[in-house]
Design goal:
Blueprint: E1 14-19, H1 22-36, E2 43-48, H2 54-58, H3 80-88, H4 91-106, E3 111-116, H5 118-127, E4 131-135, H6 166-172, E5 177-181, H7 185-193, H8 221-224, E6 243-248, H9 255-273, E7 279-284, H10 292-300, E8 304-306, E9 323-327, E10 330-335, H11 339-345, E11 348-351, H12 355-362, E12 367-369, H13 379-389, E13 393-395, H14 402-410, H15 413-427, H16 432-445
Parallel strand pairs: 1-2, 1-3, 3-4, 4-5, 6-7, 6-11, 7-10, 11-12, 12-13
Antiparallel strand pairs: 8-9, 9-10
Helix pairs in contact: 1-16, 4-5, 9-10, 9-14, 12-15
């Protein structure tokens, strides 16, 4: 049932989704697909405000208005130089065109679902239509610990009583705002205390992560004794469990290529430090990334491309197009089609990514992170991510420190238990997309699609 404090709007069953980033597009698609699975779904369209909206296109969701990839990839708030490049690339003209497209759509009636930060939220308000908001970019964990106590170094940024500024909360508390869906319980509680109609329905970021080949997982004897840990059979002559390490260089180029070089330096240290243990590195690479630079870097580090024939692990790996590499007794696989499987199978991660790192932590596992050159994974971003994800993230400043950090955390069962609980609490349980879709359907069903708010 709908909370009684929310305004009762009854828009026609048309929905326009606005999102501002690759990760936000994916989150939006999960909610839209949950809506499409309903018995009487709305007419759905989308407008990606950053990038070309490939996630929508792959899901066959029609786009309205102009789309264009900007040089910054959407990270203008991290570097003024990125903003300058976007302005030269036509950012102002693109934004004006998008606003006009949203207004034209709203004139025909419908509801807007804004996903991301203040940019889609502002356009939703400017449209004149009723709207809802999924806030993916901000969390009170950036400012507070689990007990809601402000971090000393961030007190200056909490002048507005929340990570959301007064003008953002103003947009969320308008009569036309039908609901706000923060990314975690702590943020929901703070917003509710500030008179924002926030609902704690979970984080859609944790949806769609089910492994595709659960039957292919092979457990060693040591793994069977601990159901929380599993690995693909590496063909080892002993029963010693392989250490599966996830590699996440990020999804944006050329930044991902720079990140990959840093990660491979860390991998070299891990191979040396864990020489007595079977090692398997799982590189989950975005489909938009060309593999040739990654291959060249691997060869330069002494990794040899090998045929999957004869590698027992390849029989159980769910991506037949994966590329296999070997260096001594260690294996490394590059996959662009088995993201969720890699996340589930890994014991830990070496990560220089945003959304993917958060999803991995949400599966109750530790991640070692390194600051990069940006525009996304800068030292500032990496430090902020440690506040967002708490003890699940271990930030080191140099690739040579990764191996020691991994040894320290993996040999501390109590720390691993705290990390597991922390990840579940901060990222939430799967199913948020369905819960949000159910909420939106309830809105329409209460009055059968009347287009006039009251």
């Amino acid at each position: 049932m709908l909370p009684p404090h929310l305004p009762r709007y009854f828009p026609s069953k048309r929905l326009l989704c606005l999102s501002n980033g690759h990760g936000e597009d994916i989150i939006a698609v999960r909610v839209l697909q949950a809506l499409q699975a309903q018995a009487n779904p709305p007419q759905i369209a989308a407008l990606p405000l950053v990038g070309e909206g490939r996630a929508y296109q792959q899901a066959n969701i029609p786009l309205i208005g102009a789309v264009k990839a900007m040089p910054s990839g959407g990270f203008i708030y991290m570097d003024s130089r990125q903003l300058a490049r976007d302005l030269q690339g036509g950012l102002v003209q693109l934004t004006w065109s998008q606003l006009q497209g949203v207004r034209r759509w709203a004139q025909q009636g419908g509801t807007i679902l804004a996903v991301g930060d203040i940019f889609p939220l502002l356009l939703a308000w400017l449209s004149g239509a009723p709207y809802t908001f999924i806030g993916t970019a901000k969390s009170e964990y950036y400012l507070r610990d689990d007990d809601s106590k402000l971090f000393t170094t961030e007190r200056w940024d909490a002048w507005s009583e929340s990570v959301y500024y007064p003008w953002e909360r103003w947009l969320m508390s308008r009569d036309r705002c039908q609901g706000v869906f923060p990314r975690d319980t702590l943020t929901t509680q703070i917003l509710q205390a500030l008179a924002v109609p926030a609902l704690d329905l979970g984080n859609p970021m944790m949806d769609g992560l089910e492994p595709t080949e659960t039957r292919s997982l092979v457990l060693s004897e040591s793994t069977a004794a601990n159901s929380r840990r599993s690995n693909w059979d590496t063909g080892s002559a002993t029963s010693q469990q392989a250490l599966n390490v996830l590699l996440l260089p990020g999804s944006r180029v050329p930044e991902a290529y720079d990140n990959w070089q840093h990660i491979l330096q860390a991998v070299a240290g891990v191979v040396e430090a864990f020489a007595a243990q079977p090692l398997m590195f799982l590189a989950a690479i975005a489909p938009t990334i060309h593999l040739e630079p990654l291959h060249d870097d691997l060869e330069a580090q002494g990794w040899a491309l090998v045929s999957s024939v004869g590698i027992s692990a390849s029989r159980y790996f769910p991506d037949p197009t994966a590329h296999w590499y070997q260096k001594g007794k260690a294996l490394l696989v590059i996959s662009q089609q088995a993201f969720a499987d890699c996340l589930h199978q890994a014991d830990c991660a070496i990560a220089m990514a945003g959304t993917a790192t958060e999803q991995f932590v949400g599966l109750s596992k530790p991640a070692i992170t390194l600051p990069g050159k940006g525009p996304q994974f800068t030292p500032k971003f990496a430090e902020a991510q440690t506040r967002l994800l708490g003890r699940s993230i271990i930030l080191v400043q140099d690739p040579s420190h990764v191996a020691d950090a991994l040894k320290s955390v993996l040999r501390n069962p109590e720390q691993l238990e705290h990390i597991a609980e922390n990840g579940r609490r901060r990222m939430g349980a799967p199913g948020a997309a369905q819960r949000i879709a159910t909420y939106l359907m309830q809105q329409w069903e209460r009055r059968g699609g009347d287009s006039n708010p009251r």
